[in-house]
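Predict the assembly for these two chains.
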Amino acid sequence: MNEILRLFPPYFQDRIEDLVSRRWSQLQEIRVRMHQKIEFIFDSSICWLDKPLPTKKEAIYILNQLSEYSLYRMEEELRNGYITIEGGHRVGIAGGIIMSDRRVKAIQPVSFFNIRIAKQKKGCADGLMPYIYDGSYHHTMILGAPQSGKTTVIRDICRQIAIQSDSNRSKKVTIVDERSEIAASIRGVPQHDVGERTDVLDACPKAEGMMMAIRTLSPDILVVDEIGAANDVEAIIEASQAGVKVICTIHASDMADLYRRPTLQKLLDESIFERFLLLGQGKKIGKLMHAFDSDGKQINLKRRGGGIEMDWRTAFN
Amino acid sequence: MKWIGVLLLISMSTALGWEWGRALKQRPKHIQLFLQSLQILEAEMVYSQVPLQEAFQIIGKKIPNPIAIFYQEVAEELKNQEKDFDEIWSGGVRKLIEQSSLQKSELEILIQFGRTLGQHDIEQQQKHLKLTNLYLEEQWKKAAERFNTYGKLSNVLGLLCGIFLALLFI
C-alpha cells in the first residue's frame, strides 16, 4: 500500500498506518477534504482520522506527489477530474473550476481528493464466462447498476480471454478504455493484469477507438466500457459487421432499462448482442443475477450441470 | 626577513586580484549556462512532458559544470520525495551559489523561480520561465559589463596593491 501512503506527508503516514493497520484489503476509499477529518471508507465501516486536519499545505503536498512535482503534465487529468496512479488506483479531485470557452479547463485550486483503491478480483468473472464462450465467443452486454462491479468483471473477462494459451479460447483482445478504468494505464502501460494478448487504447473516445482498433489492431474481441451514445452504437454495429465480437458494459438495473433507452434501439432491433448478463448488487463482485439471449429469453446454464464452470477453470488455470 | 614579508604580501594580493578577475570572468559564463539549461527545461516540459526529475537528469547530462552538478543533485534529492520541492530547490540553489561564480542577485531570482516550478499548467509555466529568463539576462548584461570594465584591470590591480602596501610598510 506504499503507493497510497506516499501521497501523504510523513507526519500523516504513521497515523494512517495505525488507523488502517490490517484492514488495507477492506479499504475502498480515502477522502481528503481541506480542514475536515480524513475519511476512510471500508467495506463495512467508516473511520475518521481525528488529527491532524489537512490544510492547504497538505493539499499541495498531495497534488505534488500525484504529479511528481510536475503539474504541467496533468492538464488533461485536471480537466477530467481524476488522476490514475501506480497500481491502478484512481484519485478523483474537486475544487475551484476554471472555465475557458464554456468548457472546464482545469480544477484549481484542488481542495478535495477521493482516493479510490483499485482491487483486481481475479476470477470474479468465472461465473459469467460459460455464457460468453461456448465453443465460440458471443457478443455480450453486461448490465448492472452503479457499484455492481461491471468494470471489475469486464477486466477479469479480458484477462481470461487474453490469457496466453494454446486453446482456441485464447483470443486477441483490444480494450478501448475511454475513462482509463479497465486497464488503468499510466503513460500507456496498463496497471492491471488484463491478459497477455490484450492491446489497450487508453483514454480514447469509444466510437473512434473501436474503428481504429478494427482497422489497425485486428482484434478478435473488442472490449468497451459503458456504452450509451449514438455514435458508440454505430461503431458497435460496424464492428460486428467486421466479424469482431464486442463485449461491453452498460448502466442499467434490468432489461427494461435497456429498452427504454432510445439510443440503443437500433442495436436491439438488429439483435446484435447474443448475451445480456445482469449483475446483482451485493458484497460479492460478479454475482450473475440473470442471463438473457438475443430475443430477451432467459437462459440458465446451471441446470445443464455445474460441469461447465469446472471445465472453464481447468482449461485456463 | 623583511624581504620575505614583502614578497609574501605582494604574491598574496596578486593572487587575490587574479581570483577576483576569474570570478568576474566566470559569472557571465555561468549565467549564460543557466539560461541554456532553462531553455532545455522548457523544451522538456512543453514538448516531452516529462516529470521534473527526469528533465533535471537530462539537463545534467547536457550542460557543463557547475550547473550540471546542481541539476543532478536536485534530481537525486527528488527521488526520496519526503521534502517539499521548494526546499530541495532552494537548498540546491544555495549550494550552487557557493560553488559557482553566481551571486546573491541570482540567488533570489532562482529561488523565486523554484516556487513556481511544477505548480502551474504549461501556459503559466512558460510565462514564469520567460520572466526568469528576462531577469537572468539582465544580470548577465550587468556581469558582462563589469567584466569589461574591471576584468583586465583586476590582475594588475592586485599586483599594484601589493607593491603599494609593501612600500607603506617599509
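Chain A is about 30% helix and 25% strand. Chain A has two domains: 2-116, 129-316.
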